[in-house]
Design a protein that fits this description.
heterodimer; A: about 110 residues; mainly beta; 7-stranded mixed β-sheet; 4-stranded antiparallel β-sheet; B: about 120 residues; 6-stranded mixed β-sheet; about 0% helix
Chain lengths: ~110, ~120
C-alpha cells in the first residue's frame, strides 16, 4: 500500500507570492490533516479535512486555507507569503480521523525569500 | 487548553545505553489520548504508540517501553540498549476525544546515539 505522498518536496517562493501544496492520503483514508513545523514554534496543527469538509482548524491566519477533493486528496494554499511561513509542511492521513494512528507524509519544505 | 512539555531538548548517549525521554502534559479533559512519534532525518513522522488515558498499564514493544502515570501527568518513553538507528527527534503528543485527528505536540527531544 502506497504511503502518504506530498508534492512538491521542496519549494522556494518570494515574499508576497502564493503557494499550493498537495497531499495524497493512503488509499481508503478519508481524513487529512496538515501541520506546520518550524524551529521556533515546533509542530502546529493547521487544519483537518474529512469527507471534503473542514472538521478542525488551528490558530493560523486566514492566509492559510485548504480543501479536500472527492478522492480525499487535499491541497493547502498560503497566500501573500511572509518570511515566517518558511517551514516544513506535513500532511497526515487516517481512515476516519477518530484517533486512528496518523500516517505522515515526508513533508514539503517551503522557503520564502 | 492542552499543553505537552518535553523538557529534554537534546540527549546524547553511547550505543547500548538505556535512555528515557520525558513527557509531561496538561489537559482539563478526563479522557484523552497520548502518542509518541519518531522523526528521523528524512522528516517523516513515524507513529510509535497511542495510549488511552484510562489505560495506565505500561507497554513494552521490543526495545521500547512506555510508562504512563496519570497522577503525575507523565508519559515517558524508554529505549533499552539504544542503537545508532534510534537517532532521531522524538515527539510526544496529546489529543482529546472529539477533536478528530488534531494533535498537540511537545517540542521534541533530539536523541543522538553514538557508536
Amino acid at each position: 500500500k502506497a504511503g502518504v505522498t506530498q508534492t512538491p518536496r521542496y519549494l522556494i517562493k518570494t515574499r508576497g507570492q502564493q503557494v499550493t501544496l498537495s497531499c495524497s492520503p493512503i488509499s481508503g483514508h478519508r481524513s487529512v490533516s496538515w501541520y506546520q513545523q518550524t524551529p521556533g514554534q515546533g509542530l502546529q496543527f493547521l487544519f483537518e479535512y474529512f469527507s471534503e469538509t473542514q472538521r478542525n482548524k488551528g490558530n493560523f491566519p486566514g492566509r492559510f486555507s485548504g480543501r479536500q477533493f472527492s478522492n480525499s486528496r487535499s491541497e493547502m494554499n498560503v497566500s501573500t507569503l511572509e518570511l515566517g511561513d518558511s517551514a516544513l509542511y506535513l500532511c497526515a492521513s487516517t481512515q476516519t480521523g477518530t484517533l486512528n494512528e496518523q500516517y505522515f507524509g515526508p513533508g514539503t519544505r517551503l522557503t520564502v525569500t | 487548553a492542552q499543553k505537552v512539555t518535553q523538557a529534554q531538548t537534546e540527549i546524547s548517549v553511547v550505543e547500548k545505553e538505556d535512555v528515557t525521554l520525558d513527557c509531561v502534559y496538561e489537559t482539563r479533559d478526563t479522557t484523552y489520548y497520548l502518542f509518541w512519534y519518531k522523526q528521523p532525518p528524512s522528516g517523516e513522522l513515524v507513529f510509535l504508540i497511542r495510549r488511552n488515558s484510562f489505560d495506565e498499564q505500561n507497554e513494552i514493544s521490543g526495545r521500547y517501553s512506555w510508562n504512563f502515570q496519570k497522577s503525575t501527568s507523565s508519559f515517558n518513553f524508554t529505549i533499552t540498549a539504544s542503537q545508532v538507528v534510534d537517532s532521531a527527534v522524538y515527539f510526544c503528543a496529546l489529543s482529546p476525544p472529539g477533536s478528530g485527528s488534531r494533535l498537540t505536540f511537545g517540542e521534541g527531544t533530539q536523541l543522538t546515539v553514538n557508536p
